[in-house]
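Summary of Year 1 activities. Much of the first year was spent building the evaluation harness for sequence design. The harness presents a backbone, in tokenized form, and records the residue chosen at every position. We chose the following record to illustrate the format because it has been used consistently in internal testing since the harness was completed.
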């Protein structure tokens, strides 16, 4: 998969994403960028399709162990501040990265304290490529909705 062009890979993974429940009409211009970000982590098109579906389905299947470990009451204030920042930041990887850096500085927090719970809430597990790159591939409203799950659980 790593050697394939991102657009070509998007065409190949689309039928597998459809088998994972993604409507063909939902697959949009983000698909090649999603493939580019995740192809190094995948051995097969089925593996890649599992990542792709996270970006297109409304419901995220969260790893329960990761959720319990990272989405804690202690993470709540940092997640709230992150959600507030994401509500108004320019929606691209660079601006999101800058907002994260600023937030960590203001909150006196380390990247894993924020990145791990954000990943769990947005993609369902704690380990992904760069959190700013992942977040930028979602529509803002979808990120805010997924972050709100933690607030509602408190």
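For this record, the design step produced the sequence shown next.
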């Amino acid at each position: 998969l790593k050697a394939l062009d991102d657009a070509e890979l998007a065409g190949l993974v689309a039928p597998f994403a459809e088998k994972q429940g993604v409507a063909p009409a939902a697959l949009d211009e983000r698909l090649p960028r999603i493939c580019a970000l995740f192809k190094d982590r995948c051995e097969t098109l089925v593996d890649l399709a599992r990542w792709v579906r996270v970006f297109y389905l409304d419901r995220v299947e969260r790893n329960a162990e990761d959720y319990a470990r990272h989405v804690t009451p202690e993470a709540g204030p940092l997640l709230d501040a992150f959600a507030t920042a994401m509500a108004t930041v320019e929606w691209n990887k660079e601006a999101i990265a800058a907002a994260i850096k600023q937030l960590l500085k203001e909150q006196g927090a380390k990247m894993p304290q924020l990145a791990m719970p954000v990943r769990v809430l947005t993609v369902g597990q704690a380990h992904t490529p760069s959190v700013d790159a992942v977040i930028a591939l979602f529509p803002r409203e979808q990120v805010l909705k997924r972050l709100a799950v933690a607030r509602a659980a408190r």
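The chain has a mean pLDDT of 95. Quantitative recovery figures across the full test set are reported in Table 2.
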